[in-house]
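Q: Here's a chain of 966 amino acids. Please give me its 3D structure as tokens.
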Amino acid sequence: MNKLLLYFFFLCFAFNALAQEPAKLHLTEKDGLPDIEFYNIIEDSKKFIWLAADKGFFRYDGKNYQLFTHPVQKGNSVFGPFEDALGRVWCNNISGQFFYVSGNTMHHFIDLSEELKGQLPEFIVTDSQLIIFARHNIFSVDLKTKAIQKSFNKKVDIGKLHKNNTGYIYVEDYKIAKTDFQYKNKHYLPVNIFNNFERPKGISRLINIVENDSFAFYFFSQFNKNNFFTFDAHSGKSQKIKLPKALENRIIVHVFFNKDEIWFSTDSGLYICKLKDQELVLLNTFFSSKYITKVLKDSFNNFWITTKGDGIYIYPNINVLNYNLASADKSVSQIEKLNDSTLIFGTNKGYVGLINVNAGKVKTIDSTAYRVSNIFYEDASNVAIISKEDRTLIYNLKDKTSTPGTNETKGAKDIDFGSGKFSISTYKSFGFSDDAFQKIEVVMPKRSYANHFSKKYNAFYNASVDGLFYINENNNLKAVKDEDKAIFVKSITETKSGAIGVSTFKNGVYQVENDAVVNHLTVEDGLLSNKITQIQSDDNSLWIATEKGIQLFDIKSKTFKTLTMQDGIPSYRIMDIEPVGDNVFFASNEGLFSINKKTTFKTTITPEIYFTAVDVNFENQELLHEYNLSHNQNSIKIAFNTNGFKSHEHTKYQYRLIGENNKWQTTEDLVSTVNYNGLPSGNYTFQVKIANSNSAVKCIDFNIAKPFWRTWWFYALVGLVLSSLLYAFYRRKINKLTREQNAKLQNEMMSRQLVLSQLENLRSQMNPHFIFNALNSIQEYIVLNEKDLASSFLIKFSRLMRIYLDHSQQDEVLLSEEINALNIYLELEKNRFEDALEYEITISKDLKTNQIKIPSLFFQPYVENALKHGLLHKKSQRKLDVSFKLDDSKSKFLCVIKDNGIGVEASARLNENRNPQHRSFATSANKKRVELLNHNRKHKIEVVTESKSYAEDSGTTVTIIIPLNR
């Protein structure tokens, strides 16, 4: 039983070694790292990080890893990145190939597989040459001609190359060679590495030589044991260095100087040493059992530690230290200062312990379950009140004993001491307790988050669910408000000068004097966020933990200093803050970490912005300073970036597009692109800078041309066209009016001519000969006392005259009326010919004479011509046939007038002999009338005349063709 008690006592009070290490980030493939095996790392002049890895050559821009490869590349692994004066980054591989990256493209420079024969050399690139340090020779390759030259004609052992402030230093056999950066002025130091000028046996690796402004040493491995020697470059003297035992047998891959510290990257961890009195003193060892290949400190003071097989580790800030609390769990909920070297801490799982920050020891106080909600140390009585979710312990640090408090005090949110009594905030109330924590005098029976006693004002402050309250020595309560608004407080602190600082859940920080607000800090004043998790005074400054970082506010100067994860802070979920001397300790969900107030705040280095892409109408463009675009190339996307580890997570940008909106706008978190859609024509300048900094402004010009319809020449052309169209319109209008007027005049003339034609036809039908002959016939009948014949003839004659007069007043008449008039006319003419005329009028049965209209007085002149010029000169057997019918298509009406007279030619000769000047009036009138009628007809009237003048078969046939459709 006694043994068990002793064992339990040992567990509870044993001291454990406290490992502390700079807060680090571990990058693996889960974090987007493209590989886990890295051989080398550099930062170029543009602050890109280049990684030579097993899977290839990668460039990191703070956000993305870009792989560079080449079609002729043999294998994926690359080594030895090097930036030349032109900004090209070179690498090589074990196959003897050398490449360089220019822009975003990898180029193959040369293949030296025959010369190197499988060796993996170091190399540098000068302005004119590629210098290759092989195991037993140095090769120079001209960058222009690619001519290869050897430095030695014999086998020479070449050591590892080291770059210092003036050039390079390395070993050739037993001599130390030094050269400038252009490898032109080489000289040897008066130092002999081996006394007998011969390489001793057992040296299995290259001889390394390192140098900085303070000291220089070389080392090599002989029989698997490291040997270190300092040397004086002037006297040539060497002196052996004593090594820590842990470093004696390690493979040293790389040496890095950090001020007066020497960091050795080895096959089994990173060893931090100091050289003191010819002895390397081991200060610390990190990454035990990890194969460390290199340490790089970048321009932003981040330390990159590359490994072979375990990705990359980063120390964002070596002055931010993480503590391994041994048996304690990771999440620390409370810390309290006991003295300048000791802290008491509690965790979310109930572990309570003491930390001696100087001796590096942890001592267990309690390891039972349930979260530690608050720890308060009362200096006068040397006791710590430890409140857990299930109980309260009063721990006496002098005699190491614990006594329990009442259940009413369990799960306390905050505890303070003043005016001889303890104040306590619980989830039920705020009140005062006696020294034994056995009874609570409730002052406010509502949930309380924090409380504080102010010596300056001799008053308590309580943060309850109803707001902040000031409680004087008589327990009188007064609400502390911000312009009549309640202040909802999470934690309360007081500076050395008596300034009360309170943090709020989402409204920043208030400064209170007595019972009134005197200052209010928000994001507009420089806070990272208005959501405050903890606040703690430090002399006359305030440590403020926000959801976006930790800040130190100087009350006197009203200035902020800021720490974020980019500065090495492992977490923003801060549970408690405790200043101890030059350090400040933070309890967080990621454990206990501290910062050094003097060295942790980095010198602000403003990264440089550069443009990464420009898209026009969703198509990527070559990066230019100015873009001249057409009017429809008006959708623009601009991407930009700043280099530096995870810079995109901690950088906000301000931008504007001059010509569209001259006001600066701020991007949202993690946003580094800007889109402009549908920009109108014009000249624009896009400007971007880092928000809240004095960073340089980067610009790109965009000139969007006007569409052709908005250019001056188009306006002039449109004006000319419109003028021409207007002129053409009015000209056409005038021409149309002229044509219409002419058409009207012509129609009037045609109508007049038609009337005249009708009159001429009427005149031809009522010519004096016909009337005279008719009247003679009537006279003759009267003389012969043929009264009936005279009366009949007179009636027919008068009827015909009436028909002619009626028809002369009409443009068209029915065919039946015309045939009737023609029949009367032929009856009268037959009497003239003394019955020596035979005529016949034939009408086709399918001809609808009462529906067809024809020009008035149209057929009679042709019949008259047949009588007058054809049949009149024939002595006997005069025959005339007039027929009316439809053609085969039923679309035309035909009138055929056929006589057996002397014919047209014979009649013409006869008339010519009688009167050379004779011209047939009826014939010309008929022809003219046909022309007039056809003027406005689509389907023309045709008159076809066929004449025969032979004695045995003479006669004339006139066919008149009238289309039924006009």
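Q: Can you summarize the key feature?
A: The radius of gyration is 61 Å.
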